[in-house]
Amino acid sequence: MSDIEVPESHPRYQSLLTRHRIEDGVEKGITSPQGLIAQGRGEAFDYLLGERTLPSVDRAERVAAAHLLRARHPVLSVNGNVAALVPDELITLAEATGADLEVNLFNRTEERIHAIVDHLREHGACEVKGTTADERIPGLDHERAKVDADGIYDADVVLVPLEDGDRAQALAEMGKTELVIDLNPLSRSPQTAAVPIIDNVIRALPNITTHARDLADASSDQLDDVIAGFDPETVLTETERAIRTGGD
Ligand code: ATP
């Protein structure tokens, strides 16, 4: 047994544990009630993908790690679902790649921003951005546009898990290299990403960290070689095919 009353041998253990973390996030004021709906959509796609990381997605995760290591200023964007599901994994990836963490919410409230910052600090994060909100992403309405000038606004590479389509597009239009984690290959966010990662954040973040550690001593040229030739369309097409046919 773990932090919920479900035996680890239960066939839906991981999925039930994940639901429990999201519920807990809502209770603590970290996750918005809409986060429950996003979780449900994600679960459905993960079920269809066979709850596994496909080989093409593993390659995308290696490319994402190379981008984060190669970046001038990488930032990991944190929303309420991600903070509830993978706080430790976010901090570990930030440490492994030298990235900043910034809370960036679709349904932004100051209470929730602070609840997430406190939650990440309790999990060991030193600095968490997102409270200054002194810049705006062009092309979005006021609340959804807010970012930190020395965070996402300045970043050249941004990892955005579970981002909504408009914001993903607006960030891409600012010229940022976007790495999007989303289980739905048909969603607009992964479709606008330089690197679409069609995987559960629960698997994706530790796997990107593993690749980042593996590439830690790589030269800039070697990182560029990992990035070169990556085709986002291939990941979208292969994951959609896997969902439709159940194959790899
Ligand atoms: P878009 O505007 O890009 O079409 P959307 O309307 O599909 O976005 P939401 O309804 O907010 O976006 O859904 C959230 C997205 O996050 C869904 O595509 C869902 O598959 C994905 N998602 C939910 N949970 C996870 C998770 N644990 N890991 C990865 N992706 C997830």
TrEMBL record:
GO molecular-function term, one example from the UniProt record: acid-amino acid ligase activity
Residues annotated as transmembrane: none
Pathway of action: Cofactor biosynthesis; coenzyme A biosynthesis
Keyword ATP-binding: yes
UniProt-annotated binding residues for ATP: 19, 41, 182-184, 188-189, 200-201
Alphabetically ordered keywords of this record: ATP-binding, Coenzyme A biosynthesis, Ligase, Nucleotide-binding
Lineage: superkingdom: Archaea
Catalytic activity: (R)-4-phosphopantoate + beta-alanine + ATP = (R)-4'-phosphopantothenate + AMP + diphosphate + H(+)
Keyword Ligase: yes
Function description: Catalyzes the condensation of (R)-4-phosphopantoate and beta-alanine to 4'-phosphopantothenate in the CoA biosynthesis pathway.
Protein family membership: Belongs to the archaeal phosphopantothenate synthetase family.
The name this protein goes by in its record: 4-phosphopantoate--beta-alanine ligase
Lineage: Archaea, Methanobacteriati, Methanobacteriota, Stenosarchaea group, Halobacteria
